[in-house]
Amino acid sequence: MSVTELPPKSGAEANENAPCFVYSFKDGDGKNKKLLGGKGANLCEMTQIGINVPPGFVISTQACLDYLDSESKELPDALIDQVHKQIEALEQETGKGFGDPDNMLLLSVRSGSALSMPGMMDTILNLGLNSKTLPGLIAQTGNERFAWDAYRRFIQLFGKVAMGIADAEFDKPFDAMKKRLGVKLDIELSAENLKEISELYLEVVHSETGRPFPEDVFEQLKLAIKAVFNSWLGKRAVDYRREFNITPDMANGTAVNVQTMVFGNMGDDCATGVGFTRNPGTGENVMFGEYLINAQGEDVVAGIRTPHPVHELAKDMPQMYKELVALRDRLEEHYHEVQDYEYTIEKGVLYCLQTRNGKMNATARVRTSLEMANEGLISRDEALLRIDPEELDQLLHPRLDPDSRELPVAQGLPASPGAASGSIVFDADRAELARDDGQKVILVREETKPEDIHGFFAAQGVLTSRGGKTSHAAVVARGMGKPCVAGAEGIEVDVEHRIAHVGDTVLHEGDVITIDGGNGNVYLGEIETVPPVFSDELRTLLRWSDEIADLKIMSNADTIEAATLASDYGAMGIGLCRTERMFNAQDRLPLVIDMILAQSREDRVEALEHLRPIQRGDFKDLFKVMSPRPVTIRLLDPPIHEFLPSERQLEQEIDHLKRLRETVCGVDDLMGSMQLIRRKSDLKDLPKPFGPGGLELVDSAIAKKQQMLIKVRELFEVNPMLGHRGVRLGITYPEIYEMQIRAIMEAAAECRREGFDVHPDIMLPQVCTLKELLWVHNIVDKVEGEVEAEYNTDVNYRFGSMIEVVRACMRAGRLAENAEFFSFGTNDLTQSSFSFSREDAENKFLPLYEENDILQDNPFETLDVKGVGRLMQIAVEWGRKTRPELKVGICGEQGGHPESIRFCHHIGLDYVSCSAPRVPIARLAAAQAKLLEKEYEAEL
Ligand code: PEP
Ligand code: MG
């Protein structure tokens, strides 16, 4: 029976045509997360597949948006009407009455948007309690302590969320009472204590707001709904959406879930817990989670008491454990995805309170993808689509050196894997300040709360002294892929004095510590890290990716280290070796400078002859590491003045050298003047600042620098990036390209002789016209003939062109007459298409363009599909018209980004080439591009 007095309906007829804002769990569309939010949709779906969910209803995200848009900021009448109807239905279903003192219906009110944003918005529990229903609850449960506990929790939560009172106002009297009574845990408080605290809390509400705590249960419900709606625009939620790039397209507004309360804190036959259907840290297929007997859900997540691992439930409540295992199996079987679920056991009945797709780190995502595919729960394609390629980046970061002998000073739970070092900070605001100051920090807290979120963003890792693997700190850190050690009980955090005690050691803010979220260890100081290892699961998934993808993944690499890494990560060749990086190494630069300063062709050739064996060695290393995969070597690209110091620097150096010269001369003069005041025998022992020949050395340095200065002035260009560089340089100084070509051919011939199968691809930068290709190709053919004769072996190279300027795209058909392959240099092609210099653009106006949506993305990071991409598409089409087998790839920075990779697949490129660490990301992205090609075409 309901005791609810429905308020008079204003304009009931008008409301008949009103949109539907409210859906019962029995009727809501479980697939419509945009309308019902993720949590609401899942509650509907679980209800409809027969899982035991406490009954309730969802208020749609549309209602939230309408409310937030309204000027009055009042809930529409139609919505209130519909809520009343749903409450009536709940009353019927449960046999309880909302506000009925003898048999009260209590509700939880929770937020839930289309995308899960853990802890980002507000929740209210035990709604419906007031001074009249409370005695009823005591009488009904026969558990006075339970009832007062529920009441004081409700006043605090409602006071905070719906009335804007700071937690601290409630914490003060609560902590004072605990101190007075000498108790540590809430559970040690008696009914009498909780009654006293409830009364104090009511006073807090009155004094903080000037209003009494609302007694009318409908008033409570309306305020709660509004508070949840408003939380969508709260700072935490807005920050979270910004950080994770959640656009209105993905989630707009929050739904409100109103659900019958069930209690895990009615006695020792009650419990509450949270679980993952598999371990979200490792991916292992085991029951995972924690529970607390006689507690409410928030206690587990907030880390107020340290909960028990779920397997202990098998001993504590064997029947409930069996049912929990069945629930977990049912959830995975239905959702085909790892679930993060919450449950409550109320007097021997198991209820599932919510479920959502589990957030996990990349290790777990990879392992669960592989295992779920092998178990037949999902297909291989689904397994590959389940992983965001960028997530793999987490696996490619260093971990603590396993040989480190450092002993941990404390241990907690391994809550989110990975290792991090940094200075201790005790609150989120300081973490942010320190990060802005360029420091690495570890956020150290007793426990974390949603309002600490900015501290997570700023910190390298998080350490808490309380809470379990499903505490707020653990869940949030895992979602971000940041290391976290939780519940390190050996550490006592004293935020007030900004210190932490670990045994006898006192840690101060600013002290450096290292945490290992993989095993829960905490160390003093910074510990060395070692490179990551590829797991077998990841290898298998990437092999599946390669089997599906059309695109090959090559790597940009110009050192043996980078090539080795690329090879380990599965690169199918080198797509770009920038030879200028080889010129810059310390042992070569003086030779390169000699070559630049040479006054005649003969002198230049002589200088280049010194460089040739070094280049040959470089190329041999790369060929061997990559054998039998192709290695694409780009001939020298930058303007040669880049190898010389700047004019200003040279002028300063010459100035210093001249002063040094005066000093050296002065020392010699000093010897003469000393003779006037000392005996000759004394002068013998005076130290000489320069040995014999010092002056000549300084003189020759001055001469060389002056020569360099003349050359720098001679080479000066107003726009060097648009000037004397690339193939134009190779044509004006043919001996430079000839040396490089010979070094490549000789390296290939020598490798062949040593039994390596090598495939050099020679590539020209900055090509504008066919004649440039022909010019250099002649040199290549000539050198090939000479080297093949000398080594008596074939060299078998391929000759190709970078496509970096707009004219090259327009003349692609002609270029393909001579080039066997094209490689889009989209760094330069983007500059030349936009007429932006990258450096100026990124420093001066691109951020503003992005902020104001003038450009959606930075085109130097994400390929500008509509402009640069269009040019590429034309070049591919025209190039292949001339030469159908033309191999085409991309080697600009955008080549490693999943969005750009989708486009490269779409226009039929053969390969993408990216930096070595991005190779695994690109491999997976290439498979996804293939799997989603139809969707992509539809999107374009
Ligand atoms: C490019 O322009 O995209 C390219 C790969 O060459 P670089 O970055 O060396 O100019
Ligand atoms: Mg370039």
Descriptive overview:
It is built from 37 helices and 31 strands. The strands form 6 sheets. An 8-stranded mixed sheet has the order 12-22-21-14-15-16-17-13. Helix 18 (472-480) links the parallel strand 16 and strand 17 (484-486). The protein starts with 11 loop residues before the first helix and ends with a helix. Mean pLDDT is 90; it is low at 1-14. The structure holds phosphoenolpyruvate and magnesium ion (MG).
Question: Which secondary structure elements does this structure contain, and how are they paired or packed?
Answer:
Layout: H1 12-16, E1 22-24, H2 33-48, E2 56-59, H3 61-69, H4 77-94, E3 107-113, E4 123-127, H5 133-141, H6 144-161, H7 167-181, H8 191-209, H9 217-231, H10 235-243, E5 254-260, E6 271-276, E7 288-293, H11 297-302, E8 308-309, H12 313-316, H13 318-335, E9 339-346, E10 349-357, H14 362-374, H15 380-385, E11 399-400, E12 410-411, E13 413-416, E14 419-425, H16 428-436, E15 441-445, H17 453-458, E16 461-464, H18 472-480, E17 484-486, E18 491-494, E19 499-502, E20 505-508, E21 512-516, E22 521-524, E23 529-530, H19 536-548, E24 552-556, H20 560-568, E25 574-578, H21 579-583, H22 589-597, H23 601-626, E26 630-634, H24 647-675, H25 680-683, H26 694-715, H27 727-732, H28 734-753, E27 759-764, H29 770-791, E28 798-803, H30 806-810, H31 812-818, E29 821-824, H32 826-834, H33 838-851, H34 868-882, E30 887-890, H35 898-906, E31 911-915, H36 919-931, H37 933-939
Helix pairs in contact: 5-6, 6-8, 7-8, 14-19, 19-36, 20-23, 22-23, 23-28, 24-26, 28-29, 29-31, 31-34, 35-36
The structure holds phosphoenolpyruvate and magnesium ion.
